[in-house]
Amino acid sequence: MARRSYGYEALAGFLRVLDAELTRPTRITVIGGAAIGLLYDTRHATTDIDLTPGQGEAFWAAVDRARLRAHEPVPIETAGIFQPPYSYEDRCLHLELSGLRQLQVFVPERHDLALMKIARGYAHDLQGIADVHAVQALDLDTLVARYHESRTQVIGSAEMFKLSFLAAVETLFGEATASTVAQRLEVPPPPMSGV
Amino acid sequence: MPRGAPTFLKQADMVTRLRLTSDTSSSTFACMGSEESTALRALFPSKARRALLETLFSGQVSSASMSELARRAHLTTRAVSVEVEKLLDAGLLEVKAVGPAHLIRVNPKHPVAAALKRLVSSAKPDADAATVEQRAVRESLTAFGAPLLGDEPRRHYPLAETLVRALKLARTDATVLRVLPVVLAKHAGDLDWTDLRERARRLNLKAELGMLLDLTSDVAGLPALRREAAQLADGRRKRERFFLPVHGPADRKLARLRTPASAARWKFYLNMPEDAFRETLRKHGAT
Description:
The structure holds 2 protein chains of 2 kinds. By secondary structure, chain A is of the alpha/beta class. Chain A has helices spanning 8-21, 32-40, 57-69, 88-91, 110-120, 123-135, 140-150, 158-173, 175-186, and strands at residues 26-31, 49-51, 76-78, 93-94, 103-107. The relative contact order of chain A is 0.14. Chain B is mainly alpha-helical. In chain B, the strands form 2 sheets. A two-stranded antiparallel ribbon of chain B has the order 1-2. Residues 16-32 of chain B have low confidence and may be disordered. Chains A and B meet through helix 6, helix 8 and helix 9 of A and helix 9, helix 13 and helix 15 of B.
């Protein structure tokens, strides 16, 4: 069967089928395009559900059973590499989906989601961030703060991360704003109190 | 509203007097989106003015130079200049000097500014004819196996026409570009290549099609596609272009650094390296 992309109803429907296959409370954090589609922009395209690492064999066995039962089995994978801001888990949002008994679904807060997309920063990643911004505006100061939280953890070139971040600011707020933000990226944030 | 006020300002004042509020249940326009879009077109029939209002009053940018406005609104700088001058005269826009640059922005103190922002923000672009066509192209692509959202797969166009229209759409939509190799790889054996090349030629998309065939040949391992691409080569093309819209120097630099070899052969810059396309092909069973 040719795979196609899934909207909100298909994603939510599949999560309910998965929930029915689980035998104990299970928490998952959905990231990437599925996160955008589930919580921020139900029109946003996604082709599968990416999860943060940490699920065990019992969960994946439930996924296999759910895919056999579901009308529209949505592919689920653990994200290969994801690079979130340092405290993103504290800011994750609980997705309220009716009918779930065992499954608790969390989605990163939108500025954290934006930074995860920026960490790779391909054209379609930046487009995804713009989709979120069009529905729920991102705050520039918050993005800059999360940039500083993320930059010590990014795998790969710091220079490319900075470039991707500036490209995202150009896309969201314009070239003039990005040129003033560039200076702010050189200044490290103030030290945390008590450290 | 003063007697001598420009017509469009009288139109904008009418927007205020219709009392568009954020509480749509009490608003004259009870539903979001398509009615606002229709109202916007009726009030501002000029496409250039509408594009400029949508760029500035929707919050896409807080301020921008004339050239950046032209780029974002897909207008010439002259068209922008004419409209900006009128809106400045009416007090809806103001100019702010930032170093040597002069940036245009909304005048938040104008009594109509808030109502215009609400109208522009509420207007659903889907009501626009161009967006209706885009949706049809995406539905057709989905019908041919593209992993795209949402809409039910419907074959509005035959395969070759779908590919060429999608290629045109892909010049502004990175998601569509990303899935085109999937469709091409799945249907390479079904295509009438002469017909495909002719359709691309008619829409002035020969180079784009050549790039797509070359790229798909590289990432899907289909050498026959490169032979088809070779028939589209035009040695006269010298100037390099950005395949997708770019928004500033960082965006341009990323595109230059990440352009796949196949795009570079066709004189395109693109912030989507080969592995972005390979990953999509891997996930959707087209390799």
